[in-house]
Write a structure and sequence with these properties.
mainly alpha; 91 residues
Length: 91
């Protein structure tokens, strides 16, 4: 082979290596973008779950408050009934 042929072969090998490196870099970039998309989707799901849980918590707190009110009313009525019974028994 001539020195020109060897230089050309070397240049072609270097070009092949550079193209291979470029392909690898592109593949890695695509994979990172896909992973980032997966992460963004997961973040959206977490936010949706958080919103749902916050709404459920608000509803549970409302029910708990309502139960407390009903409990106080029942207690008040029981006290009134007991006082009425005592008054009737004391006569």
């Amino acid at each position: 082979m001539t020195p020109t042929g060897t230089a050309m072969d070397t240049a072609l090998n270097e070009l092949k290596q550079a193209l291979s490196g470029l392909e690898n870099a592109v593949d890695m970039r695509i994979e990172r973008q896909r992973e980032q998309g997966d992460i963004e989707s997961e973040v959206r799901r977490v936010h949706a779950d958080r919103s749902k849980l916050a709404q459920e918590l608000d509803q549970a707190e409302f029910r708990a408050n309502r139960l407390e009110e009903v409990n106080r009313e029942v207690s008040r009525r029981l006290v009134t009934a007991m006082e009425t019974i005592r008054a009737v028994l004391d006569r």
